[in-house]
Each structure stands twice: as structure tokens, then as C-alpha cells.
Amino acid sequence: MQAVNEISYEAVQAVDDAVIAPIAMVYQKALPKPVRTGLRNVLRNLTEPIVALNFILQLKPGKAAETVGRFALNSTVGIGGLIDVAKAKPFNLPYRRNGFAYTMGYHGIGTGPYMFLPLVGPTTLRDVVGLTLDRFLLPFAVGGPLQHPAYVTSSFVIRSLDERVENDALFKRIREESNPYASYRELYLKTRQAEIDALKGKADYQQEGTVVLPALTPTPPPVMAEPAPAPEVAPVAQPGPVFISEPVVQPLPATL
Q1: pTM for this structure?
Q2: Per-domain residue ranges for the chain?
Q3: What is the spatial distance between Cα 64 and Cα 189, in angstroms, rounded to a whole number?
């Protein structure tokens, strides 16, 4: 599996260099950041019912209620989600990622094999199943028009370009590593585990814009201080001449 993943990773990087990255940079220059943020907010707002449902499945009714409140505020006051008014004062309801993959991880289902797939990128078997459930149930939660090919295609393109622009610095950082594929894999798995740990209360929920990514390179071992030199031992004085009934010519040796 690793050999296939590495081949897929290299192929995706080649396509990114030749096609995706240039288009993403044009997208960034053509659309001002407020416009890109608004489009991102609309797409996120449409996923809030799935987020709320999974908080219920994780036995977190309070978080589910907050998510429903976010959805109601942003869909009305926020003009269909274009403006994220819910995260600002006095509401203070930040966006939180969630989905069926998170729910499976919360209830102890393992990640399964790691994969690097075209059009998907780094993922695991658990995340593929979870994402499929998210996409399948979204039209039932929000509305039938979300099944229309025009929406599916346009939302995928916008989301992909937006993520490529927002993560450009991270991708460059990964490529500077001695083994970019291994670094990407480690970063993805550690980040996903940190999100599951947050759901289980082992860490605080990471709100938008505050996620701290794990280090890509192994932490070097601590530098050990050089041991202090042993104190010098004073030389043992040789015994003086020993006199017995018949004297000897020289002192007796200290050791044989």
C-alpha cells in the first residue's frame, strides 16, 4: 500500500505543479479575500446540519444546540451564510469541524489503512467512509438542490481552490522536508488524532484559525551535559624503609 501511496503522491504533486497551483494563484488574485471568505462561509454553513447531527451522535447536545444556533443565525442574519455573524460578539459561536468520521473515531473505530488518493489527497479508510456518509446525507439535511451536478461540481472546485490557497505555505513547508510523503502522512494522522482527542475531552476544541499543526520533523534528542571530570586522586605515598630484625636494602613495594 505504501508504494502505491507514494506513486499517487508524486503524481498528485506533478499535477499540482502543472495545473492546480497556477489556477489557485489566479483564483487568489482574481477574487479579493472577503469574496473568497464569503464563498467559504456559504459552503461551511450548508454542512452545519451534518455537524449538529454528529454532535448528537457523540452525546454532546450542548454543542449540537450551538451548531443549530450558528446555522439559524448565519442563514438569516448572515445572508445565507455569506457572513459568519455567529462567531462574533455577542453570540460567540465559532465554527467547529465535525462529521461521521469524527463520530466513528469518537466511539473507538480505528483509522484503517492510510491512503493518498487522487482528488481526495491524504485520508484513511475511516475518513473515506465518513466523508461518503456526509455527502450522501447532506441533501436530505439541507435540501434536494444540493444533489444537482452543477452544485456538486462548483462546490468541489471552489473548496479545492480555496484550500489550496489557504494551505500554500504549509505545502511549501512539507516539500522542503527530506521525505515529503512521510511528513505529509505524519502531519495528517497527528492532526486527525488531535481532533478526535479534543472530542473526547483530552484537549480543547480547536476553533477556526487556532489549530496548531504538529511538527513535521522529529524532535532532536535533548543535549546531555558533559559529565564533570572525576576529582583527581592524590597519589598514594610509597611506604618508607621497613626495619626488621635483619634490615632490607629498599622499601617494600606497595603492591605485588
Answers
A1: 0.77
A2: 2-199
A3: 26
